[in-house]
Amino acid sequence: MLERLFWSGGLSRGELASSVEFSKSKANLVIASLIGRELIEEGGVQPSSGGRRPEVLRLSHRMGVLAGIDIGATSVDVALLAPDMTVLDHRSEPADVRDGPAVLFARVRDLLREARERCGVGAAQVLGIGVGVPGPVAFDSGMLVNPPLLPGWESFSIRDCLAEEYAAPVFVDNDVNIMALGTHWRLRGQLQNFLVIKIGTGIGCGIICHGMVYRGRDGSAGDVGHICVDPQGPLCHCGNAGCVEAMAAGPAIARMAEAAARAGESPRLMEVLERNGALTTVDLGNASRAGDAAANAIVQQAGAHIGRMLAAVVNFFNPSHIFIGGGVARIGPLLLASIRQSVYQRSLALSTRHLDIQYVPEVESAGVIGAAVMAVQEAMLAGTGRERNGRS
């Protein structure tokens, strides 16, 4: 019942009983018990269908709060959420993972403490903490494993760091997996097989398979950034040549923009480079939307590389949807159009017959919501004693 209420966002007594196939009398007994234990509460009424308007049941806000932490290569987001995923407090600020885990998590703890103070919540009221990080994670241990973008992080225990202040369980996963979970929750679990691609400093993929995050045997499923799209391409930081991440992630796009500016191919980009001393994907996106030919060529090239990689994934997995997110996705509609064109051109007709490629819905909060969803889901999983079998 708790799981049904969580994914639905709220149900009437009759709808809840029907969804778990309980008799009316049994459902009423269980609901009364859950209300008495302050696990669920009445949260308003539904529109009338002719009779008295039914009360909506939801997870109780009196249970406590959840903390969602989304660490990016260049940013950190920290939020407190109610059990029904209502965002109570959310702060985002620039950060640099190269400063090291101790420095970054000292700031995370400060941000969490400040959020609790604003909401009037004590540390003991935190029910669970979900953390997303930009690197491969061994999910059972919560430890990063040889993360290419996070030198010095592999031996750092995020769980132990947060346990110094919180008794709540801490769950750690790859940042794109939690974005996929946040997207899954936003869609109320209606899509069962889809992909979320995060394009930023790196490129990663979150896989929702049969309604659950698929992590693989050791947690590395979805590490698509190191799929080769050009054997003659540039050397990637993983040590191989031609990885899509080395050719179409944020740093690669910025380098291509700077090369085009210095080669005299774009006076617009050269003007920004001379003014700021460097170019970003935001600068490239602005130039592309203004009709700059060199910028458009770079965006199309990056989209073609990403689409080439995705075509192979689409042929293998046959998802219903691909959602594109991450900082680079903000470049503009030309990137999305180029990705679509490449995927549809290179994938098998049957794999793309019902495929929809679009942006991540409400991308700004997908990470912290996904981190909190992970904390709720794992706590429920542990509470029921079910086996994960590589998924959750």
UniProtKB/TrEMBL annotation:
Pfam families assigned to the protein according to its UniProt record, in alphabetical order: ROK (PF00480)
Keyword Magnesium tagged: no
InterPro entries found in the cross-reference section: ATPase_NBD, ROK, ROK_cs, WH-like_DNA-bd_sf, WH_DNA-bd_sf
Record key words, sorted: Plasmid
Family affiliation: Belongs to the ROK (NagC/XylR) family.
Name this polypeptide is given: Transcriptional regulator
Organism for this UniProt entry: Azospirillum ramasamyi
